[in-house]
Amino acid sequence: MNLKGYIVLILIVLVSACKKDFLEAKSDKKLVIPTTLQDFQALLDNTDLMNTNMPNLGEIGTDDYYLKYETWNIISEPYEKNAYVWAKDVYQGSISFIDWTNRYQAVFYTNNVLEGLEKLDNQDDSQTYNAIKGGALFFRAYAFYRLAQIFCGPYISSTQNSGYGIPLRLKSDINAPSVRASIQETYSQILSDLNQAVVLLPKSTSIKTRPVKSTANALLSRVYLIMQDYHNALRTANTALEDSNSLMDYNSLSSSLSFPFQRYNGEVIFQSTTSYARALAPSRLIVDSTLYRSYADLDLRKTLFFTSNGVNKIFRGSYDGSSIYFCGFASDELYLNKAECLARLGQIEESMNVLDELLVTRWMTDPITKKSYYINQKANDQQDALNIILSERRKELIFRNVRWSDLRRLNINAQTSRSIYRKLNGKTYELKPNSKNYTLPIQDNVIQFSGIQQNPRD
Amino acid sequence: MNKFIVFFCILCFSTPVFSQRKTILGKVLSKDTQRPISGVTVQTLNHKIIATTDSSGIFGINIPFNQNQIIVSHIGYLSRKLEFPKSNDKVLILLEPDISLLKEVLISTGYTTLPKERATGSFAFLNNSLLNRRVGTDILSRLEDVTSGLLFDKRFAGGPTISIRGQSTIQSNAAPLIVVDNFPYEGDISMINPNDIENITILKDASASSIWGARAGNGVIVITTKKGKFDQPVTIEFNSNVTIGSIPNLNYNKQFLKSSDFIDVEKALFKQNYYANQETDPAHPPLSPVIQLLIAERDKQITSSQAEAQMNLYKQGDVRKDFYKYIYQKSLNQQYALSIRGGAARINYFLSGGLDNNKDNLVRNGLNRTTFNSQTTYFPTKSLEISANIVYSQNTQAENNGGADQINSGGGRGLYPYAKLADQNGNPLPVLKDYSASFINQSNSNGMLDWSYRPLQELKNADYTNKLENIRIHTAAKYSFNDFLNFETRYQFETQNNTVNNFQNLQTYYVRDLINQYTFTDDLGNLQFPIPKGGILDYSGSKLIANSVRTQLNFNKNWKENTVSLLAGFEVRQARLRGAGNRIYGYDNDLLTSVPVNYIADYNLNPTGLSAKIPFNVSLADQLERNVSYYFNGAYSYKQKYTISASARKDESNLFGVNSNQKGVPLWSAGLSWLASAEGFYPFSTWLPYFKIRTTFGYSGNVNKSLTAYATASYAVNSLTGLPQAQIETPPNPDLRWERIRMYNLGVDFESKNRLISGSIDFYQKKGLDLIGSSPLDPTAGYNVGGNTNFTGNNAEMIANGIDLQLSLNKKIASINWNAQVLLSYNKDRVTMFKYDSPISYYFSSVASPMVGKPRYSIFSFKDAGLDPESGDPRMFLKGQISKDYGQITSTATISDLVYNGPAQPTYFGSFRNSFTFHDFTVGFNISCKFGYYFRRPSINYAALFEKWIGNEDFADRWRKPGDENFTTIPSMPLAGTTYLRDVVYSQSSSLVEKGDHIRLQDINVSYELKRSKLTWLPVDRLSIYGYVNNIGIIWRANQHGIDPDYIYLSYPSTKTYAIGIKAQF
């Protein structure tokens, strides 16, 4: 073999020797296989998925607002028009619907994170590790909670709750079939994820799109309220309030701004917003006039929450500080949860005290004497206390995406149940208490692919 | 004194010769070019005395006095035996080029060249004159209609895509591999100067292409550039041409509603209170001029007659007139190319330069290209060959005009047809965009920047350039150990820089709009501008660097009746693409200053109230592709009659996440050919003297770079928090495999007596295995990227059968030479496996979901049941019943409700090319045809018309009154608030599916050639003048709507172009 032959041989040897490293190089620097804590945190920090675009199919059906016929008539998305009048068929074949898909996408992310965390060898940074694990559990519970309010029947504490819940996907395997759990299993899973998360989550964070202990407690309190478990709802509301009890004095806010509230304001515990719906756009909806009138003139919420477009009252009081609706957790809700639980548990005076603590910050103060015009609430009996609290709850948490859940749970008890109505072009639609139409159908393509049970409608 | 010495010397030394011999002096010229030929062998009959010509073709030979015959020979020329009179010792010898030798086609696979006669696979060879039949800036468009099996798909924007022998993948890369001078071309193919191309070989079947392994599944196009030749005098070639293209036909686009109809629709909707909500909408959407009139009339600001008069004026308007006048123009392409080539005994060279200057059909758009090419081959010793090739090209594209589609009213709206772009004096006029006129007026008076949009001012201010720079350096060394074994190594370095600059000054609408949206009033009541009042510059650059090394051992030996050629080698390639982009605010182009902005703060946007941060446009990219390949190729021929060939290759790459053991894919092929006409028993030798049968079988592959076996995520910066966020891009897929394509080919080549008719016919079957397809997943699984819940994996198979026929006819009728070429291709594919059924709506998209048993690209529809005679509503058959419950149809229809209309790509296509040569004058034309396919034509979409102002001419023929359903299939205009699903269902109706079949006269070319051999006064050796008319038009089409099926998704078909040029050779 001559010189050239040797060169060939050497080259072949060289290539085989360094081939492994050569072919192990990453093909795109931007792509990673998520394996580190940093990667998992980044997945949970995907706020487009985790914090925003929360389902509003329920909110579209609430009684806090109405649409004029000509406005409603030309809304192009069938599911918004149909959800507004609680129609039997909601989607009419439309599949451009994200309420279901986005929440399950979030579940997929959290499952990937939870499985990835299990595979980690070194869990040296245990504080970070716990925060991420707690975050993943919280976000999974948050997604399940959102879905449960729309796609499965109300939880009724006096029953077995064996009706169809939602599919509880607890593994990232995309080939695993979807099966609907029972309502009881659904809520148990939410509670179990949250109770784990409460232990793992940090006490505080400067980033309000990440959950902390009080976030998990606030959601627990909401969920227990939905489950009519008032002891636990009270306990968790109290725990949450230990960390997050600050209230804004509405007198310090300016009603001349187009959006008087700031994003991440002092009451916000956890940032989350709903998806855009044409039906709920400030340009279209008109605030229910009885509801608007129920705000006293000295109640600052009347001017801070609402403005006029020249013809009608429109809402501008989102805690997101924009035309997008805030639906996360804020301390004002905790006061309301606490007050309601106390009232339901018979501690009427305490409940009124808690309510006063909140409302005094919402009412006007005399600019000179610095004394509030607010007069402390008095309740004659338990039902009266409850009525006061529920009325204030509706006024405070307007367009916070809690009204639909509240309607569902209040309907269980005859004393708080009510029918709600829509009037369009001379036609009246009614949603009766405990109607099947309080549970929305699952979109057609999900039913086609998974074969899961569809929700019955009236 | 000197003369005397010289004379004495000659006398002394030549005396012995003088007595017995004589010196013949002569000059050898090529009969063809009249150029001297160097290195010509001149010898006596007994081969004892030999001389060669010098670079000016002159030789001197001493031959015995009694001889008067010499033999003159040179490679590439017919040898001549010459006899000359004794008295005349100076001779001029003309050598005629050896046609038969020139006809021997050497096809190139990119790894080696081989004579076509010995090939077993299916190759198409395109020589220089065929490539130069067309005139144009790019090389790929010249491949159209020159070989069978090659289809240009021009339906979608962004230039044609080429497919060889139909589709063999579901959704992976379907483009053929393009090889330029031995290596895959990584840059932009538009950078190649077509004047530098010598020939192109297209590798169609597995045997031809398998040497390219995993990238060969879609066929391979091997481009070979021009090179110098040894022992050639300096040849200079000059080519210049001008192409003028007509203004596009904007009236071709059916998606237009004339003003009077449009205004009638607006009036009807106004009556139905359609605009009530928009009037009070705090986002202030634009209300068209007619709606403003109607509001003013309603509010008694103007009288009805005033409104009517103004509206009648609008009815006369047609914005397309302004488009013709200000947006479009005649295109003008100029091309200049100059090359020099030559060679001595051991060195040759080729140098060329090219200039292209194109003015686009769109005003202020154009292209400038400069190319430079240098190629040298040198033999330092007899056994070592060294070559170097440097190519530089630069391409600057101005993209200042987005065309008529980019002039719109914002928010997905089209433009109202009575818009005016300029007044009588040509001054730009505002057109409604994004906001209402009253809102714009109010903002202007509030101290905001002027919020109006003037399309012509936009066009004037646009400053967008896209610059590409490509450098390719290719070096090769080949060492021959002996006459049958050699070793070669090649190295190629390629780099491409791309810079994009988009400078939008303060006068542009984009900048003014952005500044205004972020403007707010502070606590003191002053306007604050978080985005500085100045220009915005977006600039980005990317750099591609590709390195390839190849080492190869070649063995070629003939002994007795055996011919063996073997090659084996390996190749390492790396391509890295890095890029960065940035935006600066408050940019001053003269002072080069910019202003920092606050990217962190949230602002409430005007007028929507949405909260947003200032757009932070920084992009970074770093991609790396590495490949290691081993390959072998061998062929053995016996008696030049029987040839067997085999090829094998293994490819490995760093495809992200694929397990090391799965990275490699071994692929192979084998072939056989038999020259039947060389057999003694061949019975047809009188009329069919050449007849060859070949067959091949093998596997090639296809790469899908977007997939990985692991779950992957990509990072980005969160717009809400400013923190890094990750998005899951692919779910884990441990079973991921490379796509493979199995192909059989059976072909025959034939030639009749005197080459009157020659051609080939190939039958093939392609089977795609492990094809990667997307199947929609249960959305509950949670995998979702960009709203797409599809899971992509190896879940499909498909099969395609086809025939390629190529026939040539050469006939001389009187003094006219008629040359005709018939190309016919048949290709029909069908999906044989696809693991999932898709939702019904997926079968109506422009690229339908695959369906088992049907071609990959198919057209499906709902069976039309005619319009409702009562209301003019569209009706379809659902489960055999007539239905107009559109929600029901979209949500419950199943595959059994679909009508399969046929394939969406031609099943049969071909061309008929003719050229007639009379002396030095040639005229030719080309007719092409496509048959056996369908397309869905767009029609009126009322939801789009109402909401987005997008009309369609079909509106004029809509159902209006009972009885119309007998004449029309176009639905009536619905009331406002009718579900858009009515339009969706109508768009899926079988009444909108049309046959795509058509025949078109593609082009006409003429040329006239002047040669110095005939015209001695000519200052150059050859001069040809040529003309070329392209895209002439359709001769026949099956559809009745005047639609050109080649361009169904485009606003207008390619414009007719006229070219004229000269080519000279010195």
What does this structure look like?
The complex is a heterodimer of chains A (about 450) and B (about 1050). Chain A is mainly alpha-helical. Helices cover about 45% and strands about 5% of the residues of chain A. Chain A contains 18 helices and eleven strands. In chain A, helix 10 runs antiparallel to helix 11, helix 11 runs antiparallel to helix 14 and helix 14 packs antiparallel against helix 15. The mean pLDDT of chain A is about 90. With about 1050 residues, chain B is mainly β. In chain B, the strands form twelve sheets. Chain B has a 22-stranded antiparallel barrel. The longest helix of chain B is centred in the N-terminal third of the chain and has 19 residues. The two termini of chain B are about 40 Å apart. The chains are: A mainly alpha (about 450), B mainly beta (about 1050). The interface between A and B is large, with 91 and 86 residues. Strand 1 of chain A pairs antiparallel with strand 34 of chain B, so a sheet runs across the interface.
Record the SSE blueprint.
The complex is a heterodimer of chains A (458) and B (1066).
Chain A (H helix, E strand, L loop, with lengths): L2 H22 L6 E2 L4 H8 L2 H4 L6 H4 L4 E2 L2 H5 L4 H7 L14 H21 L6 H26 L12 E4 L12 E3 H18 L12 H14 L3 H14 L24 E3 L15 E2 L1 H5 L7 H4 L1 E3 L4 E3 L13 E2 H14 L3 H12 L22 H15 L6 H8 L9 E5 L2 E5 L12 H7 L8
Antiparallel strand pairs in A: 2-6, 3-4, 5-9, 7-8, 10-11
Helix pairs in contact in A: 2-7, 2-8, 7-8, 8-9, 9-10, 10-11, 10-14, 11-14, 14-15, 14-16
Chain B lengths: L1 H19 E10 L10 E3 L6 E3 L5 E7 L4 E5 L6 E4 L6 E6 L3 H5 L2 E3 L4 E3 L7 E4 L1 H4 L18 E4 L7 E4 L12 E4 L2 E2 L12 E7 L2 H4 L10 E6 L6 E14 L13 H13 L4 H5 L8 H10 L5 H13 L2 H9 L3 E13 L3 E13 L5 E17 L2 E16 L37 H9 L9 H7 L2 E17 L4 E20 L4 H10 L1 E2 L5 E2 L6 E25 L2 E26 L15 E2 L6 E2 L6 E20 L3 E12 L6 H4 L1 E11 L14 E13 L9 E6 L6 E7 L8 E13 L5 E20 L13 E24 L2 E19 L23 E5 L1 E4 L6 E5 L2 E3 L2 H7 L5 E6 L4 E11 L2 E11 L2 E3 L5 H7 L32 H7 L5 E3 L2 E14 L10 E16 L19 E9 L1
Parallel strand pairs in B: 1-7, 13-16
Antiparallel strand pairs in B: 1-4, 2-3, 2-5, 5-6, 8-9, 10-15, 11-12, 13-14, 15-16, 17-18, 17-51, 18-19, 19-20, 20-21, 21-22, 22-23, 23-26, 24-25, 26-27, 27-30, 28-29, 30-31, 31-32, 32-33, 33-36, 34-35, 36-37, 37-38, 38-39, 39-45, 40-44, 41-42, 42-43, 45-46, 46-49, 47-48, 49-50, 50-51
